[in-house]
Amino acid sequence: MPTVAGWIVWGIDWAPVPVGVFAFVHVLLQRADAFTAIDRMTKPAWLGITAGGTAAVALFSLATFSALFWIAGLVAVLVYLVDVRPRLIEVQRGNRW
Predict the structure, then answer these.
(1) Is this structure's pTM higher than 0.85?
(2) What does the alpha-carbon distance between residue 18 and residue 23 come to, in Å, rounded to a whole number?
(3) 3-state secondary structure 5-30
(4) Dihedral, CA atoms, 66, 68, 3, 12, nearest 10 degrees?
């Protein structure tokens, strides 16, 4: 029978997967020229980064020796969500005065 700690670790392991899927889908829906407008990497680069990060958090576990891959995948997805996504939204909205 799984323990409470086991369920918590399982939840932490799988919580980033939908976040990564959201980030990947968000990249898919953005215009390619918006990435160059904000002076960030290209859309195909971010597609690869978010897809790889999502795959890493889905395939590896925080509770095993492969935790470094899990953490790297999570960081890759979070960099997109925290740094790139807000700038994309801002540049595509334009000035709303």
Answers:
(1) yes
(2) 9
(3) HHHHHHHHHHCHHHHHHHHHHHHHHC
(4) -130
- Which residues are within 8 A (CB) of 57 and not within 5 positions of it... i.e. 6 or more apart? 13, 16, 17, 20, 70, 73, 74, 77
Query: Residues, the chain, total?
Result: 97
Predicted confidence (pLDDT) per residue in 62-86, tens digit: 888 999 999 999 999 999 999 999 9
- Distances in Å between the Cα of 45 and the Cα atoms of 4, 9, 90 are 39, 31, 20
- pLDDT tens by residue, 12-37: 999 999 999 999 999 999 999 999 99
